[in-house]
Specification:
The structure is a homodimer of 290-residue chains.
Chain A (H helix, E strand, L loop, with lengths): L3 H13 L2 H8 L3 H15 L4 E2 L5 E2 L1 H24 L5 E7 L1 H5 L2 H6 L7 E7 L5 H6 L5 E4 L8 E15 L1 H8 L12 E4 L6 H8 L7 E4 L3 H9 L5 E4 H9 L4 E2 L6 E10 L4 H17 L2
Parallel strand pairs in A: 3-4, 3-5, 7-8
Antiparallel strand pairs in A: 1-2, 5-11, 6-9, 6-10, 6-11
């Protein structure tokens, strides 16, 4: 058998982004974390992680943490059958737009949500799947349909992203340009360095990458910055209906949008609780998304 | 004179949380980053950062990055005088609640905001000041009045945090308890590991730390989770007025709240543009905050 304490230490180092914080999380010394991982590497005859900042898993390391997550799901099924009154921690990687719009009621509709302590990790929908591959999370919402090793995926629906800005912003920057070339020079809102939606949109209009950026790592802050006239950007239709209605946001290119599919990724060894959660999320998503 | 390229490399390593990403940001090789920093340390005869994950500044390292930020502000004054048409990047550390509520219109009201590319870094209001101390940002909003070395602070106002939950949540967990003891067992929303507001609130009611957590690193997601009945937590009054009015959120202890002061921290070497930004933020905050 593997030394599961070593696998836990490995997962904690990746989750927490370092040995020191992993030790704090596991309530053991930093040298204990290092030692467990070194012993694991000695047994396998190869490194399980790259000691850079933040540490990164090697291929074998990724297979191990992925395996641990599946084992933990099996344990959870066993424990919740034995102790149905016990709380379980549910760690999910989700995109910021989902948690700010449709996801919370979906989680609440799971019949066992009162037993769940949610730990949400916010990632761009393009990269959340990496957390799943690493076995860091129990499920994830992302735009890729391709399941990870040991996992499956189920379609939730499509979120339509519109390119929006305030009327004043358009007046200032478009300055009579009836095409879309002005968008290349106007300040463009981006959520983070991983957020490529705005670039994709300009490419769709056969324009170059945006020239000026406003970086706002908050989904709701992103919308506030657009309403305040500080930039244009891609926003989920479901998040901005009221602002389109009251005219504080306007579509800068009404003939164009980007549809982003959303998938729920889960483990084949999914626990009973996680089955119920998936079903609740799928059902609610079917009502909210396209 | 210092080697300012080395100081830039040092700041980038701290900002980006590692040598590899710093190299990418500066568009140089990782070995060039390491070499510049090593030469700086050789000259000073002591380390400027701890090579842990993520890297951390030593005391002398902190003084150097802090110094660099002040020099950059001076440069900016010079450049914007010479080239008033040039854009400037304005890197700010702000708390999530501010950007999701009152801050965006304040930034927009700055007369030179059209020339500014904002780069927002979101930090808990208790720890944003560390970014300022490190010289990583040009200004910061936080709850401390104490200026950093080389900096000054100005009061913006007070944000009142109320302890709120959905009516269903209170019905399920309070179950007739007319006091507040039920809050210790009920799931408690927290924004991040640095978010101590809920702990402070329970201490105010002479209760122990919360027993169950829901971790939601999104200000607006936090409110959505509360409205969906998944937890109670402290929310800014200015963010939830409409939900208090429509009854989807209810005060769990109406006689108690936490007032969090907000301060704008800036550098003594503040550029002209940053003076105008500060004045716009102070003016708008006076209208929105208590």
């Amino acid at each position: 058998m593997f030394d599961y304490r070593a696998l836990e230490a490995l997962t904690a180092v990746i989750e927490q982004g370092g040995f020191e914080r992993a030790a704090k999380r596991l309530n053991i010394s930093q040298s204990a974390v290092s030692q467990r991982i070194r012993q694991l590497e000695f047994r396998l005859g190869q490194p399980v992680l790259l000691r850079i900042s933040p540490p990164r898993l090697t291929e074998i390391g990724q297979r191990l943490t992925n395996h641990l997550q599946q084992v933990q799901q099996l344990e959870q099924s066993l424990l919740t059958e034995e102790h149905p009154e016990q709380d379980v921690t549910v760690r999910l990687a989700v995109n910021a737009d989902s948690i700010d719009t449709w996801l919370a009621p979906a989680l609440a509709q799971c019949p066992v949500s009162q037993r769940m302590n949610f730990e949400l990790v916010i990632e761009d929908q393009r990269i959340g799947l990496q957390r799943m591959k690493n076995g860091e999370v129990m499920a994830c919402i992302c735009e890729s349909a391709q399941p990870v090793n040991g996992g499956l995926s189920q379609k939730l629906g499509v979120v339509r992203y519109l390119a929006l800005a305030s009327p004043d912003f358009i007046h200032n920057y478009a300055a009579g340009d009836r095409g879309h070339h002005w968008l290349q020079q106007a300040p463009c809102l981006v959520y983070s360095g991983d957020d490529q939606l705005q670039h994709q949109f300009l490419a769709l209009l056969q324009l170059d990458a945006p020239g000026r950026f406003q970086r706002v790592p908050s989904s709701s802050g992103f919308v506030q910055m657009a309403r305040a006239g500080l930039g244009f950007g891609m926003m989920p239709e479901i998040q901005v209906r009221e602002f389109l209605a009251d005219g504080s946001l306007v579509n800068v290119a009404p003939q164009h949008w980007i549809d982003v599919p959303h998938y729920w990724h889960y483990w084949q060894t999914e626990s009973d609780y996680m089955v119920q959660l998936r079903q609740a999320v799928v059902k609610h998503a079917a009502e909210c998304l396209l």
